[in-house]
């Protein structure tokens, strides 16, 4: 049986699962009595696991909505990242949602799913209108989630900052898109790129730079990174674990859809801007991270530095570069979420977010300290955890693209980064704790940390399958 | 005959005022209003491009843009109300560190 392209919904098989999950949770939320909503968190995880399984066994290729959406191997790779991110994020926030937002937890989980739904549309968009809609579907639930602790002054303040920056940045992005749309006379991203490639004009460059600037706000690129540490510090840590990883990867998935068509026409047009932003982001992230005494702020700046690496991988504009970006995204998701969840576990056990509360963690919980050690080593890029391969592949791509100086710079800054990551390691293993009380963590958070650790160590010891998948998915993405 | 450049120039002016407002206003509602200016600059662009060549798709794009901006502003106003409830004050400074 064949369908006309406009009603072909097979490329959305996994997204439809998520959509059904959202509706089921919203309806069940109304039907369940107030004290008995714990099942909704489990249902969220189940929905995402099913969506992930669908994405494993069903390729979801092909055009839909008259070519506005195209399912590709690359889209599939990113979708899997987002579903895994959603699963880990939900596991992480589950306990807090149940205890702190008991009556409102149904909407909390539904909003996470809506955000994941928006993300999972992004890597396949081929139309500016769908791009904007999917982007906002991802973004608006995140503003609500960050303000969910409505009596906490700091959380609300962080949420307002996230919101104002987010809204201003999406308006900036839209302004850029409107210029690109006007030049090409079409909302198709391929037509926009082809037009800019055939008639490169200053206006096309201004439009692309505005889109990059808007996205730069979202993913925390210098000079638009100021909000990142504040929001991370103010908001609830398990939510930040989700916010710091999945939406950033989604931002890069969006940039790829805009910059890669027509042989990377818009990428070449804005290459100097991208390169400068990437190098500055690397510098700022690493140098500001050194001074931080709060682990959440430290991880925020380290996240800025990692975005610098991802931008470098993007700026190479080669298939190897795109493949290394995809691999780096997957590794970053596991590593960063794991690290934030350990920070959360330590902070709930009577500490706060400072480096000092990690003092002697090894004696209080060997499991947490070893997990955190792996995450920090992965963030620093030490063999044999996933971060090492991620950095190595990015360096290989930059070298092949002909920028040996950038490889040296990146390697030098990685050594510098080791310094501030090891400060936390030193606190964990070589100092005495203030109290010897053993740290107990709830089951869901433990499971999330264990999954992150499995990803970090597993892919670190055997990176071939993931990198092969990324390499195969990147073949031909620079096509017409 | 109206020229498209008039509309685009107006949009650029609106956008610039909006950016200036976002960066300098310290009242959260003021920043929200500035973001509205940014969004309206976008809509003006889209409608102008639609009218002067691209066709109905420009107007459709503008409709989507309006709908998205409205949903976004609703969430934003809700957060401003929350902030007012927790500290009876809605000044924010985007450029500096958070108050401790």
Main interface pair? A-B, 43 and 48 residues
- Backbone shape of chain A: globular
Low-confidence stretches of chain B: none
Shape field of chain B = elongated
Oligomerization category of the chains in this entry: heterodimer
> What is the average of the pLDDT values of chain A?
88
DSSP strand count of chain B = 0
For the record, give the distance between the C-alpha atoms at the N and C termini of chain A, rounded to a whole number: 30 Å
Which percent band covers the strand fraction of chain B?
under 5%
Number of helix segments of chain A?
21
Distance from N terminus to C terminus of chain B (CA atoms, Å) equals 57 Å
Helix and strand run of chain B: HHH
Give the helix proportion of chain A (percent range). over 70%
Helix content of chain B: over 70%
The CATH topology of chain B is given as: Helix Hairpins
Radius of gyration of chain A: 21 Å
Main sheet record of chain B: none
Look at the structure and give the CATH class of chain B: Mainly Alpha
Range of strand content of chain A: under 5%
Descriptive account of the structure:
The complex is a heterodimer of chains A (about 475) and B (about 100). Chain A has about 475 residues and is mainly alpha-helical. Chain A has 21 helices and 2 strands. In chain A, helix 3 runs parallel beside helix 15. Chain B is an all-alpha fold and about 100 residues long. In chain B, about 80% of the residues lie in helices and about 0% in strands. The mean pLDDT of chain B is about 85. Chains A and B meet through helix 5, helix 6 and helix 9 of A and helix 1, helix 2 and helix 3 of B.
